[in-house]
Design goal:
With 84 residues, this protein is an alpha+beta fold. Helix content is 24%, strand content 15%. The protein contains 2 helices and 2 strands. The protein has a two-stranded antiparallel sheet.
Length: 84
């Protein structure tokens, strides 16, 4: 499992090496100084990009962080619909 420094390094290195990424933001509980950190916190990372469609349709880029165990894709989810 990656630690906080690993995630930060991978995120910033990815952003620096892809010219389509204009900015990186951390939001959620890890960005809130009033939240007491715990081992279950996730990383809510926002990439501001030039080519939105590329990142939306070609999701292999997410694998630089390791194999996803859970992804939330609200725009593709329908309540009560089973995924294939």
């Amino acid at each position: 499992m990656l630690n906080q420094n690993d995630i930060q390094d991978k995120t910033l290195n990815f952003a620096k090496t892809d010219e389509r990424i204009r900015a990186v933001l951390l939001n959620g509980s890890r960005a809130n100084p009033n939240v007491t950190p715990d081992k279950y916190q996730d990383f809510d990372i926002v990439f501001i990009v030039k080519d939105f469609d590329y990142f939306l349709t070609n999701r292999n880029w997410i694998n630089i962080f390791g194999k996803p165990i859970l992804q939330q894709l609200p725009d593709e989810m329908e309540l009560g619909k089973r995924s294939k």
